[in-house]
């Protein structure tokens, strides 16, 4: 009888981050990743058409999926904090994919949207995320920038930018100024959505 695959817990990931194979970050980034990608490209005979952004060939789609799974299993995920590689088995990866939700609700009330998988030939419109997406914004323009995105009807959700300064101070990572900046970003984006008449918009 086939064994039932077990889901990976946060505790499993934590333990593997402490006990996984030791490796230098530069070796994982510049040796393991490109070498594995090159080998998998050859193994699955992957050839991309530069004129086709989204592949539609069924065999190519399957090969890309299998190469992606192999890539994760072979390379794992690098943990910068411990200098180790978090490894997953193929069964664990496939179980996680199979167990993943087939949709989720993003946002609240009338601004809530359902996010669902879209195959390459889907006729359903994609979710449109708007915003400066992690780009630095000045304190003076932060609210206005985000309101300009929120008031566009085509935009479904906001991906916010980051404050260059907070009360004129540099929000240095790990400092109280960073905490204040992150809190201010969230509050200002919510206010920008309110001003645009888009209360409850996903963020």
Summing up helix and strand content along with how strands pair, one would put the structural category as mainly alpha
Distance between the termini: 45 Å
How many DSSP E strands?
Answer: 8
- The domain tally reads 2
Number of helices, where a helix is a run of at least 4 consecutive DSSP H or I residues: 6
Low-confidence segments, ≥5 residues, pLDDT <50? none
Helix content: 40-55%
Q: Strand order within the widest sheet? A: 1-2
* Largest sheet entry: 2 strands, antiparallel
Mean pLDDT: 94
What would you report as the Rg, rounded to the nearest angstrom? 22 Å
Helix and strand element order: HHHEEHEEEEHEEH
Strand content: 5-15%
Categorize the overall geometry: globular
InterPro entries: MtmB_MeTrfase, MtmB_sf
Pfam families: MtmB
Protein name: Monomethylamine:corrinoid methyltransferase
GO molecular function, one term: methyltransferase activity
Polypeptide structure, described:
This protein is mostly helical and 203 residues long. It has 2 domains: 90 residues, no CATH class; 87 residues, no CATH class. The chain is built from 6 helices and 8 strands, in the order H-H-H-E-E-H-E-E-E-E-H-E-E-H. Strands 1-2 form a two-stranded antiparallel ribbon. Strands 3-4 form a two-stranded antiparallel sheet. A two-stranded parallel sheet has the order 5-7. Helix 2 runs antiparallel to helix 3 and helix 5 packs across helix 6. The longest helix is centred in the last third of the chain and has 20 residues. The N and C termini lie far apart (45 Å).
């Amino acid at each position: 009888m086939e064994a039932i695959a077990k889901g990976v817990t946060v505790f499993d990931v934590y333990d593997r981050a402490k006990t996984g194979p030791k490796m230098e970050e530069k070796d994982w980034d510049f040796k393991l990743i490109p070498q594995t990608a090159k080998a998998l490209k050859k193994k699955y005979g992957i050839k991309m058409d530069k004129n086709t952004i989204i592949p539609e060939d069924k065999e190519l789609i399957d090969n890309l999926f299998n190469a992606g799974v192999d890539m994760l299993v072979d390379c794992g995920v690098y943990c910068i904090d411990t200098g180790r590689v978090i490894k997953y088995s193929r069964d664990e990866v496939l179980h996680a994919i199979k167990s993943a939700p087939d949709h989720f609700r993003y946002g609240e009330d009338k601004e809530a949207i359902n996010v669902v998988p879209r195959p390459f030939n889907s006729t359903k419109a994609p979710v449109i995320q708007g915003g400066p997406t992690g780009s630095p914004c000045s304190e003076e323009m932060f609210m206005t920038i985000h309101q300009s995105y929120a008031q566009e009807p085509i935009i479904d959700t906001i991906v916010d930018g980051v404050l260059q300064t907070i009360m004129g101070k540099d929000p240095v990572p790990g400092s109280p100024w960073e905490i204040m900046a992150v809190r201010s970003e969230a509050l200002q984006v919510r206010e920008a959505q309110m001003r645009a008449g888009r209360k409850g918009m996903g963020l």
